[in-house]
Write a structure and sequence with these properties.
Blueprint lengths: L7 H22 L3 E2 L2 H10 L15 H13 L5 H39 L1 H6 E2 L1 H17 L4 H17 L1 H24 L5 H29 L6 H17 L5 H10 L4 H8 L11 H10 L8 H11 L2 H14 L11 H19 L6 H27 L5 H18 L1 H4 L12 H13 L7 E2 L37 H9 L5 H6 L5 E2 L2 H14 L4 E10 L2 E8 L5 E16 L4 E8 L3 H4 L3 E8 L5 E5 L1 E5 L5 E2 L11 E7 L9 E9 L2 E9 L4
Parallel strand pairs: 1-2, 3-4, 7-15
Antiparallel strand pairs: 5-6, 7-8, 8-13, 9-10, 9-14, 11-12, 11-13, 14-15
Helix pairs in contact: 1-4, 4-6, 4-17, 4-18, 6-7, 6-8, 6-17, 7-8, 7-9, 8-16, 8-17, 10-13, 12-23, 15-17, 16-17
């Protein structure tokens, strides 16, 4: 290096090697995971887990869906969703780094190394498509503005198009941050008179005309070919747009708008469900309902108190700290802004960042993912603009051993600032290997052995890792086909609707009413769900019973009234044992039924309580004391398991004993028909 130095090509090769090492470190030591439940849904759709390959995605442009579909056709056993996104991230960081090295020499090398370190965790570890779209879009702008050859401009246009396909909202935010680079070109052309309008138009405007024409042209084409009127995709697009307008902004309070809600036929419970995103009842929560609420909702006051939250949040973000430090280095030695050539495009990203956040404050507290996506583009554009002048000041000193010391110091500073992302995570247990995740995966593997519909609600996190799957694993066929999450708007998407149709179902909530199957559901959500159903659908669910547990998760069934209950004296049952469990949170009642296994085959069992004082009726589902190979009790009597005439009911603790104040019956249910059998209550003898 002292005698001959390194060529730009060799420096670029050095940067690629460094980035490959970092990628290896991230994958094997930092435990990458999906940073949102949206990502998990997209990976499931891409893998064909919702029943077959598709080019239509809930959030991603259909053209990108075709790209993914092509990869899955070539590599059907590989999780191509993660693979393609990783490749795009790698190419984007590489394109930005190459541009810096090509323009700024040794300074560009240092900045490229710092960029690779700073973006390692946000992009490769906390894997999320909004951030991927941000860095791909940022790479497109850097390639265009730093282009010295036509192929760089064309590559930039392709990156801009891909960024818009992955997440158009991220493309828009990054474009706002990048606007300062174009403003600087305007300043150079028309204020400083460095070149004329023809060069300005051809060099600084034409590439973006072409890029934006492709971006918006592809959107228009998708609207014609994919979102055709009357199609399932068009319905979901309208539904999701209305959902965003209401739920992303915030549901108006019941007390303030009670009259308007009642005019729409909505109860207080319905509004409570909206606030908690329990919106899987597509017959009740429709596009028209969302739009009607948005129409009468008044704009709320600007949330100024959120601004301080954002400033505190930014002060803790490594990407912001690194951006600010380099802006400070650009400003040293102290000079006036007028003496700085690139002051517009160095300062603009910070101004744009504030503007974007002020916009979001009007809606809600900005999600950390949105913050990070913006900060990635702020860092990239700030460093792009500042690098040239920093190189003018420092490049002469970045030679020989001094360069090595400077580069090492820059890497060390970046690591110190990013220590939480780059170091501490390496010593933590992967989320996918946590006790909760392993328990959830065990649960999933157990309940999906039987392809009848089961329902899973309220997972422990929102990023999909609770299922214990790595983001590099291809999801198995029919994964999630018979497991659905209540409350997510994805339940209206064509993929989920099609899968429900495979089971002769259409509405997720209504299909629950017909199910005897166990439900994984948090106790906090149980109350909302039961109140909603009891208030809305007369004669259906009223109560819940605990029917088993796997790992750290409890299994419940939701229970309902049965219309037209028959009675019989042919069979009898006896309630003979009672105790409590789970720190006295549940009362347990055990009973025997004098029916043969053949008579019980395929039947479920319930405990019916009727208060002799108030006439109030409650029903709770029980389990037969038959255990399968997983140690789970059977909800439906199965003659292939060990014969038994015993049944157990586990219900929330009662306020007083199940004594003579109740008339109790064991109910045997087959299909939708239930029969009360004569029951002796010997619990307290």
């Amino acid at each position: 290096m002292k005698e001959k130095g390194l060529s730009r090509a060799q420096l670029c090769t050095l940067f690629v090697a460094f980035q490959i090492l970092l990628l290896f470190y991230a994958v094997f030591f930092l435990h990458p995971y999906y940073a949102s439940n949206d990502e998990f849904t997209l990976a499931a759709i891409a893998s064909g887990a919702y029943g077959g390959d598709t080019w239509y995605f809930i959030y991603i442009h259909s053209a990108f869906g075709w790209i993914l579909k092509a990869f899955y056709a070539l590599l059907p056993n590989v999780n191509c969703y993660t693979l393609v996104m990783y490749v795009l991230i790698f190419l984007s960081v590489m394109g930005i780094g190459f541009t810096w090295i090509r323009r700024n020499g040794w300074t560009g090398v240092v900045l490229a190394f710092m960029l690779a370190l700073a973006s390692l965790s946000p992009l490769y570890v906390e894997f999320q498509y909004t951030k991927t779209a941000a860095v791909v879009t940022a790479a497109g702008y850097v390639l265009i503005f730093g282009a010295d050859k036509k192929r760089h401009t064309l590559a930039g246009i392709v990156f801009l198009l891909l960024g818009s396909w992955i997440r158009f909202e991220a493309f828009g935010m990054v474009s706002i941050v990048a606007f300062g680079l174009w403003l600087h070109r305007v300043y150079r052309a028309f204020v400083r008179k460095e070149y004329g309008w023809k060069r300005f138009f051809l060099q600084d405007c034409a590439p973006f005309f072409m890029a934006f024409a492709l971006v918006f042209g592809s959107i228009a084409l998708e609207n014609v070919l994919v979102y055709t009127p009357g199609s399932a995709a068009a319905h979901y697009k309208e539904y999701d747009k209305a959902r965003q307008q209401l739920l992303d902004y915030g549901v108006p309070e019941w007390d303030e708008y009670q009259e308007e809600y009642e005019a729409l036929g909505l109860s207080r419970t319905d509004v409570l469900n909206l606030e908690n995103w329990l919106i899987a009842d597509s017959d009740r929560y429709t596009v028209e309902v969302y739009q009607a609420i948005v129409a009468f909702r008044q704009d709320r006051p600007f949330q100024w108190e959120y601004l301080l939250d954002y400033l505190i949040l930014l002060a803790k973000k490594p990407l912001f700290i690194l951006s600010a430090l380099l802006a400070l280095l650009w400003f040293l030695p102290l000079r006036t802004l007028r003496e700085r050539k690139n002051w517009i495009c160095v300062l603009w990203p910070f101004v744009a960042l504030l503007g974007i956040y002020l916009y979001f404050i009007k809606i809600y507290r900005v999600l950390p993912i949105v913050v990070t996506a913006c900060l990635i583009s702020v860092l990239v554009f700030c460093w792009t603009a500042a690098g040239e002048e920093i190189a003018d000041v420092w490049s002469e000193r970045l030679t020989g051993r001094f360069f090595i010391r400077t580069a090492a110091a820059a890497v060390a500073v970046t690591c110190v600032i990013c220590v939480r992302m780059l170091v501490t995570s390496a010593f933590r247990t992967a989320q996918q290997q946590s006790e909760e995740s392993l328990a959830y995966r065990e649960l999933y593997d157990t309940i999906t052995e039987d392809k009848d519909i089961y329902y899973v609600f309220d997972p422990i996190t929102n990023d999909g890792v609770e299922l214990g799957y790595s983001i590099f694993e291809k999801l198995p066929e029919n994964y999630l086909t018979n497991v659905f999450t209540l409350g997510g708007w994805e339940t209206e998407s064509p993929q989920v609707v099609d899968n429900l149709a495979e089971y002769d179902q259409w509405n997720l909530m209504k299909s629950l009413y017909l199910s005897d199957r166990a439900v994984l559901i948090s106790e906090t959500m149980l109350e909302h769900l039961m109140i909603h159903i009891d208030d809305t659908y007369e004669g259906l669910f009223l109560t819940y019973s605990k029917v088993g547990e796997i790992g750290d998760f409890d299994l419940y069934t939701l229970n309902y009234r049965m219309s037209g209950l028959g009675e019989t004296e042919e069979y009898t049952a006896t309630l003979d044992t009672t105790y409590t469990e789970d720190d006295e949170r549940y009362d347990v009642f055990e009973a025997t039924v004098n029916m043969t296994p053949e008579e019980l085959e395929g039947k479920s069992v319930f405990l019916r309580m009727e208060s002799t004082e108030s006439g109030k009726v409650r029903m709770y589902q029980g389990v037969w004391q038959q255990q399968d190979e997983n140690g789970l009790y059977s909800l439906l009597y199965d003659t292939e398991l060990e014969d038994t005439d015993q049944v157990k009911f586990t219900i929330p603790k009662m306020s007083y004993p199940l004594d003579e104040r109740y008339e109790v019956h064991i109910v045997i249910r087959e299909g939708s028909d239930g029969t009360k059998i004569a029951t002796e209550n010997n619990l307290y003898e």
